[in-house]
Write a structure and sequence with these properties.
The protein has 3 domains: 306 residues, 3-Layer(aba) Sandwich (Rossmann fold); 85 residues, no CATH class; 86 residues, no CATH class. The protein is 29% helix and 25% strand. It has 16 helices and 24 strands.
């Protein structure tokens, strides 16, 4: 498989592993117009560097996100936007200097953008569920480079489609050469073999044709008539045969769509309508709105998406904020809503790590309102407007709908200080969650109340984190006397150990020293 090289790639390919874990600090929760302190909502808006925010989400959400939509900077060079679109943000520059080093001073615009995107896409891949999907919006500036990077991270075999979004419906008087009317949306699966049929609900323009009823209406719903004969002639003689009806043989002009066996089965099940008009036979089959299980027939998403324009996104910002310039060129909520309708169910978790004005959260809430869903969203926004625009937009949407909530977070301190020691300012619960995640890959939902050192038992292994801010801890016979769990093996973290290797081997005990033996993900 071809890969893409650029200045600094060797420094960022595995950089996602080196990003420090930071805790998420809840600032407030907004519920139906009321603001309370602390956390509480499963919907999250996080203000902070999305690289560090994505890393902070791993313990709880690795492999659990069902759908990701991101609209990253397009790297157009336009410095006038509210969202700086040339990856020259001071935080990005500082990060490039620290990670890439002196080489970073010679990076081209494309090198910088690729260095910024690669580790973020790696973390998004880790967060995505095995049956999850990701949509990435982009235009022609970085289309070619992004195509290869996505192929490298997600695998070419997992590309579902490259969608074309028609973003505007005309204009272009200022265009020098060609009027550009479109952008692209890469549509990848984490594992395409785990993706079932993707369909959208039928729209009103289709539903109006389902106007007939028969004895199957209660289960199958109404039906429409579709011609059984086809205009194609692809050398399939088994599809050219007479249908015997009322003593006559009915032949197609070219051929039937179905095999002879299927046709006579449908005829016996009253699934065909055969009529003679003006001396000519017509054969139609009943296309029911619902399948035999009562599930409504869906429609396919076209690879060219039309009808949702940038102007619609601007109009929505103007409606909510009274000024269409509060955020420039936001994606229209209906566009993202269409993608979510295709790729999520009513209980999906949706993530957008380049949240901008919050379109993805609004689309999620709108979709929940339309189908009584309970989808949850996580947004990450680095810019200072994360609260005054991103969160404010969602507050307005929630107030309009009279339902919904979210918790607003900032990035707290890292779990390890500059000396690679555990940061004592981090709450013990966050440290416990991190330890358990690095050991099991699972989120620690709660630690034991009766034993503050016992984390949980996973796959026959009991995990203990014997830690204190105020004194050194020692794994000895006295501590073992406090253990009450029965397990095949014990993993115990402490500052020191006085047990002999022979004793630990006999009793299936693994000692790990704090902090030396704590794995850094």
């Amino acid at each position: 498989m071809p890969t893409l090289n650029w200045i600094g790639k060797d420094k960022v390919v595995n950089h996602h592993k080196e990003v420090p874990f930071r805790v998420l600090e809840p600032q407030y929760t907004f519920t139906n117009g009321e603001v309370t302190t602390g956390g509480g909502s499963e919907n999250k808006i996080i203000h902070g560097d999305n690289l560090e925010a994505l890393k902070a989400l791993l313990p709880e959400y690795e492999g659990k996100v069902n759908c990701i939509y991101i609209d990253p900077p397009y790297n157009t060079g336009n410095e006038g936007w509210v969202y700086n679109d040339n990856v020259n943000h001071p935080k990005i520059k500082k990060w490039l200097g620290e990670v890439v080093g002196k080489e970073g001073e010679d990076l081209s615009r494309h090198d910088k953008w690729l260095c910024m995107m690669y580790p973020r896409l790696k973390l998004l891949h880790k967060l995505l569920a095995d049956d999850g999907v990701i949509f990435v919006s982009i235009d022609n500036y970085e289309y070619n480079y992004l195509s290869i990077v996505l192929e490298e991270i997600f695998g070419r075999q997992n590309l579902i489609e490259t969608l074309i979004w028609k973003k505007s419906y005309g204009g272009g008087a200022k265009s020098k050469h060609v009027v550009n009317l479109h952008e692209y949306i890469f549509f990848y699966a984490k594992d395409i073999t785990k993706i079932s049929k993707l369909e959208l609900p039928p729209d009103d323009s289709i539903l109006k044709y389902y106007k007939f009823k028969d004895e199957k209406y209660d289960t199958r719903g109404p039906f429409r008539l579709q011609p059984l004969a086809t205009t194609s002639m692809d050398e399939r003689p088994n599809l050219r045969y007479p249908i015997l009806y009322e003593g006559e043989e009915i032949m197609p002009e070219k051929q039937w769509q179905w095999s002879k066996e299927r046709v006579y089965t449908a005829l016996n099940n009253n699934d065909l309508v055969i009529e003679k008009k003006k001396g000519k036979w017509s054969v139609n089959y009943k296309q029911y709105l619902n399948n035999e299980d009562g599930e409504q027939r869906g429609r396919k998403l076209f690879s060219i998406i039309d009808g949702f324009y940038t102007q619609h996104g601007t109009n929505e910002i103007k409606r909510l904020f009274g000024d269409g310039k509060a955020f420039n060129f936001p994606k229209p909520p209906k566009l993202v809503e269409e993608l979510l309708r295709l790729a999520t169910d009513k209980h999906s978790l949706v993530l957008d790590s380049f949240a901008g004005s919050g379109t993805t959260a609004q689309a999620t809430l709108n979709l929940n309102s339309s189908d009584d869903g309970n989808r949850k969203f996580i947004l990450v926004e680095m810019e200072e407007y994360a609260d005054k625009i991103t969160a404010e937009r969602i507050r307005k949407v929630i107030n309009e709908d009279k339902s919904g909530d979210f918790t607003f977070y900032t990035l707290g301190e890292p779990l390890f200080n500059a000396d690679n020691e555990l940061n004592e300012n981090v709450p013990l619960q966050r440290i416990q969650e991190y330890i358990y995640y690095t050991e099991t890959g699972e989120f620690l939902k709660h630690a034991s109340v009766s034993d503050c050192h016992y984390l949980d038992t996973h796959n026959g292994i009991s995990y203990y984190f014997y830690y204190s801010k105020d004194e050194m801890t020692t794994l000895d016979l006295d501590f073992l006397g406090t253990i009450t769990t029965k397990a095949d093996q014990y993993v115990i973290y402490a500052d020191n150990c006085l047990l002999s290797p022979e004793f630990m081997a006999k009793h299936s005990i693994i000692f790990k020293k704090i902090p030396r033996d704590i794995t850094r993900f």
